[in-house]
Amino acid sequence: MLPIDIIVPRSAPRRWQGMVIERLQAEGYDVAVLQQLGSPSWPAAVNAIFALERRLFRRTAPGLSAPQPEIPASPRSRVAALRLDLAGDAAPSDVPTILLTFDGARFDLSAALAVAAGDLPVIEAVLDHTVVVGRAWPMIDKRESAAFGIEDVLARAITLAVSVVRAFIEGRLTGEKRAPETTRNGEGTAMQFAAAYLAKSLPRLGREAFRRARFRHAHWCVGYRFTDALGVAETGRLGTGWSVLPDSGDRFYADPFPFQWQGRSFVFVEDYVHAVGKAVISVVPFNSDGTPQEPRVVLEEPHHLSYPQVFERDGAIWMLPEASSSGKLTLYRAVGFPDRWVAESVLIEGEISDATLLDHEGRLWLFATNRDGYGSTSDTLVVFYAPALIGPWKPHPLNPILIDRRMARPGGAFFRDREGRIFLPVQDGTLGYGGGLGLCELQTLDMQTVRLSQPRPIVADGDWPYPRIHTLNHSGGLEVIDGIAAVRKGSGNK
């Protein structure tokens, strides 16, 4: 492996910087650590507020922003092939140097200020201060907590740093030029952070606490309609004609996937019981007049299940549900459709979410998100490929394909329009999890390139009462969506 120098602050480095070093060492890189004198430390008030929030939420492990006494230096005798500047102010050098910036600022404190103010920072990897070679739009899952928000941002700083180093070493790093003066210091002060925290973060935390005292933390509703007209995927609008699948209030249904079998319509859903805190997979059969029958459980595991993609292939009916909390992606086969399923094979190990299958040009592909150890499950797109459904499944050489809260996480099955173009519904996390859906066209997919268009937002108009949607699917004339609803504790949706 080519030698890499990683530059960290000598005084009070943070845990995320040490994690980058550990990740690159684990991948076998020849890493040396250099300490940068004079790098600004975070104000003590910032560290104290983040630590206090973590205690309030009963998080005992140190966060990625937690200061460390020191990251030991380990200089080398030969010249490095690449420098990775995690301190923000490394001295000029003839060695190619990659710097991470946060909203254009050289120091990671800028990310803490942005999160405290309720903003969503953008991270850039900048080569020699002039070429942007990577970007990340991190997802912040828990907007009510600044401590959790900075955790999500720094988690993707780790992902971006490791991915751009890998691309540099493999000779596939590309980028776009920008003016060097666009990079700011962005040190910030304790007063700036305190002002942003008191004006934005603290009220937001209070509002969320008040909301959770009165309402369910999350309660989704499934919508369905039978139509021969152009659907949401073709029009980009929700339109009218939707009915709500009833629930009892103590549970909700989400992630609907329809399936046609022997002339009948079925919808498979995530079935989440609030008191239990995890979901099973249930099926909703429909009568010939389009009336849904009572949902019934068809698959339960010790871990949470959701996103039950059901499809027919190789003479069998299969289900590929999300089970990221189990640390693996398991394929199930129907042995008595629709009620009996058996685990057929583990396709992929890891914290994989919403894996979505595509048969394309002689290969099978899976698009999914990967948590990558820390942070959100909704912002890092990975792709896998295989010659057959059972596998072997291998990661795409370009993984992670992108880090982008606006389009990384699938929100339903791939579909082809009347012109043969391939589209993928994608979740937009700009407004938070379940904030909306977009449609991305698959422009290129092979072993060298994965390219999706920018998402076209779905317009939440019409008669659907819950416009914050995160799943879209159709099968035959049956179209299904879901949306998050404000449901008071103890009430239902009937």
TrEMBL record:
InterPro entries: GINT1_N, Glyco_hydro_beta-prop_sf
Occurrences of domain Glucosamine inositolphosphorylceramide transferase 1 N-terminal (ranges): 251-448
Xref: Pfam families: GINT1_N
Signal peptide: none
SUPFAM superfamilies linked to this entry: Arabinanase/levansucrase/invertase (SSF75005)
Taxonomic superkingdom: Bacteria
Protein known as: Glucosamine inositolphosphorylceramide transferase 1 N-terminal domain-containing protein
Upper taxonomic lineage: Bacteria, Pseudomonadati, Pseudomonadota, Alphaproteobacteria, Hyphomicrobiales
